[in-house]
Amino acid sequence: MLGSLLVQRLNATRRSNPLFLICSRTFASKKSKSSSSPLSKNATKSKKIDSKSKNKNDEFALAADDTSSSSSLDNIAVDDSSRLQQLALDEKDKSLNVGINGRPLFTAATSISHLNSKHACSYINFSMEQLNAVLPEGLPTGMLKEFEDSKRDALLVRQSFLDLRDNYRRIVDPPSFQFAGSPKGPKPQKQIVLDGPVSCGKSIALAMLVHWARGEGWLVLYVPKGRQWTHGGFFYRNQQTGLWDTPVQAASILQDFMKYNESRLLQLSCQVSDPIPLGEGVGVGPMKDVDSMAMPEGSTLYDLVQAGINYTHASVGVLVHLRKELSLVKDIPVLIAIDQYNNWFTFSEYEEPVTFRSTRPIHANELATVNAFRSMMNDDMMIGAFSHSTAVGKLRQELPDVPTGARINYPRYSLEEAGTVCHYYLRQRLIRREAFSEDGWKKLYHLSYGNGSELRWLAPFMR
């Protein structure tokens, strides 16, 4: 009886005090008794000597590994340097600029506006200065990786992109298009969602479309990383709107929008007179006795955006107000382009406390900024691209706030495009000339199944 009571008390103590469990485990371990014989002492000494020698061997092994890794990095640097020197010499040899079926590898066109179907399956050259100037919000990761591996700032002209560009061109300038057998041509779509397999070129196509539209003088709100709208920063519930405000992201979005569009925003007047609700500032809380602001009469969109940048209390309200203003601009075409658009149809990083021990995940559409820009159920020109690298999970085919038929699949490389790409990698010495063959690049195409990044990764292994 006494023994059972002691056991129950010990168990209760372990459950109530985790430290007791740790201490009991510590004291439960028994130390092995040391032998006092000379043989055991010699064995101990020999073990110490062995451990010292083992430590020295490990140090030598680590040093050797460091040396080998540094030498391999040096070899890579030397290879890149020699490759760049060889490519510089290749520029003088125009006979190398030959693509599939003897076609020119590079197009003579210097602008995306001048491209047509004759230029498909050829490369157009860019400069990083030009791209950074036209796309100051940032370049897609896939584009930068392509430039880095090929050692050239050039992109493949794809017929799928030309069709996408011409779709929006027909909306703004319908008479410029005449189609054989169909004078009116296919009906253009103002709202498009680009879906498709991983690394099929959706983000690059979206960036090139923004590049073209800005070259045409359009006003473009370009969001290269839509996921950033739903992750990180300060968030809180706005009692006036019932939505969640993210002033850090809103201020950053307005700054990006101002980078390229400043001159156009100065020419456009504000048309919405509704007061702009104010919220909490970053690190300073809400303003006292003030819950809204109004733009002075005669203000421009530049003044509106600048107010949201200067005052974080107004950042979210200004961004939501800007969305209304963009729908009313008629002087110039307006395009809203959003990459990683699929992140706006799932849960954000934020959570709302429900009880002392539980929280509720906040959906992206509960954020004021996403709620204002996600919907395509309007007459504005909008395009969104899914980014499967962000891994938000599979979404159903019919999405809320997206018109039926707006979601289209952007294709992988065709066989002809893959052949052009492999000839381009041969020209850029990513593939060894002695190993290149038609059978070889066709094998790469089938192995990669037209996946752009996989094809580029497999190219150096052509044998």
Structural features, described:
The protein is of the alpha/beta class and 463 residues long. 44% of the residues lie in helices and 12% in strands. It contains 14 helices and 15 strands. The strands form six sheets. A five-stranded parallel β-sheet has the order 4-11-14-3-15. Strand 8 and strand 9 form a beta hairpin. Helix 8 runs antiparallel to helix 9, helix 12 crosses helix 13 and helix 13 packs across helix 14. The longest helix is centred in the N-terminal third of the chain and has 53 residues. The relative contact order is 0.11.
In short:
The chain is of the alpha/beta class and 463 residues long. It is 44% helix and 12% strand. Helix 9 (301-310) packs antiparallel against helix 10 (315-328).
